[in-house]
């Protein structure tokens, strides 16, 4: 094609999104109709014909923007009529676009592009072809107000029949999950009530009898966990990611991420993550000092690298892959510099400030029972009470609560669907938190009754295990639901999904541990410990 292509200046979020917009050769002047105007003439070589044919075969489409309204259409078509053998299919490239534009007074309201099915170029054989690309522009008046011009795009993902099925499936999973949690809660309450009564009677009766169950390990229950620096760092990162998610939901529910607000989500993620790093520093350092840790600087470094580290290495690898493939997903050098600057000038200082505030907060760890000097031995337990089977049990219920919604989210992140129903997503998120907290508390209770007092890490891992289930779902989605192929798409999908699932693991692990800690403190406060 002749003519030079001008590149558009992109905002940070658009660049992260992989958008690299260039100017198109079509001139759409306001209210000026055009009838079959030539955009350009071109001679396609054999190689170009083969490239176009491959693109038509894979249903490639173009996407353009006019006054920030998206337009898209297929670049060609495959003629399969009356032919059974794929080698006999005919391939055509469209060469005539008709733009239909609606306006209201002086504002563009709607635009669509139609391809003329009769004006095509045959690409079936490898030979040089001369092509004239043409376009037609038609304007018509409409009375839709300018404020409502984006509604058309929001509706595409929330068509009534889709929405009914969507709501129905969500309500269905909500009811199931809430019934299960209610069921668990009632059992727990009754069992605990019995425990309290039994322990109270035991105290009135002879004191020399052997204690059993969870009261028996009161001297070990608040013994601090191994690797406390890592534990505090994981809690810090998890709390930060939780805050980030809540802020993103607030913005979504206010309506910041309307469809085609290109890259707004990515910009928000980067900025809010940078600004919330003080929370991670504070939580991590104060908890580490509560666990009587001494090396708080190392703890802060660990907190800073726990989520950013794996994300950075994944990004370096995938960006290199994208550069090798010459894909637009490769971030330009300038953007990488901007992100590094945000990290050094905003994230790190806030992390350190938060850490110093946390270290100086001098909060005591309130343990209702004194810890004995020597840890007691944990009895031999059956295999299903070890960490991995417990994690599998813990992750299944919360995952089943979000399973249906995951499909819609994957289809919008990795497919071409638009996701606009943030209210449903928010409800699902709340249910996910409730279920994670409940299941972790239940499993912690069963663990303590078996006289296994190492519940700190276990509650974190059980809470976070939903993240691993989501990664399992990625495998299913990749093979069963998506058309992805090739090394680049595969590595991008599994690389970035691994980071997202790891983030979920940290966030839900924090939720699980906080719930378990609250529960353990509560039950040991209710009995008299020597």
UniProtKB/TrEMBL annotation:
<feature type="transmembrane region" description="Helical">
    <location>
        <begin position="165"/>
        <end position="188"/>
    </location>
</feature>
<dbReference type="InterPro" id="IPR004240">
    <property type="entry name" value="EMP70"/>
</dbReference>
<feature type="transmembrane region" description="Helical">
    <location>
        <begin position="300"/>
        <end position="325"/>
    </location>
</feature>
<feature type="transmembrane region" description="Helical">
    <location>
        <begin position="331"/>
        <end position="353"/>
    </location>
</feature>
<keyword id="KW-0333">Golgi apparatus</keyword>
<dbReference type="GO" id="GO:0010008">
    <property type="term" value="C:endosome membrane"/>
</dbReference>
<dbReference type="InterPro" id="IPR036259">
    <property type="entry name" value="MFS_trans_sf"/>
</dbReference>
<keyword id="KW-0812">Transmembrane</keyword>
<feature type="transmembrane region" description="Helical">
    <location>
        <begin position="492"/>
        <end position="520"/>
    </location>
</feature>
<comment type="similarity">
    <text>Belongs to the nonaspanin (TM9SF) (TC 9.A.2) family.</text>
</comment>
<keyword id="KW-0732">Signal</keyword>
<dbReference type="GO" id="GO:0072657">
    <property type="term" value="P:protein localization to membrane"/>
</dbReference>
<feature type="transmembrane region" description="Helical">
    <location>
        <begin position="391"/>
        <end position="410"/>
    </location>
</feature>
<feature type="transmembrane region" description="Helical">
    <location>
        <begin position="264"/>
        <end position="288"/>
    </location>
</feature>
<feature type="transmembrane region" description="Helical">
    <location>
        <begin position="460"/>
        <end position="480"/>
    </location>
</feature>
<keyword id="KW-0472">Membrane</keyword>
<feature type="transmembrane region" description="Helical">
    <location>
        <begin position="230"/>
        <end position="258"/>
    </location>
</feature>
<dbReference type="GO" id="GO:0000139">
    <property type="term" value="C:Golgi membrane"/>
</dbReference>
<keyword id="KW-1133">Transmembrane helix</keyword>
<feature type="transmembrane region" description="Helical">
    <location>
        <begin position="422"/>
        <end position="448"/>
    </location>
</feature>
<keyword id="KW-0967">Endosome</keyword>
<dbReference type="Pfam" id="PF02990">
    <property type="entry name" value="EMP70"/>
</dbReference>
<protein>
    <recommendedName>
        <fullName>Transmembrane 9 superfamily member</fullName>
    </recommendedName>
</protein>
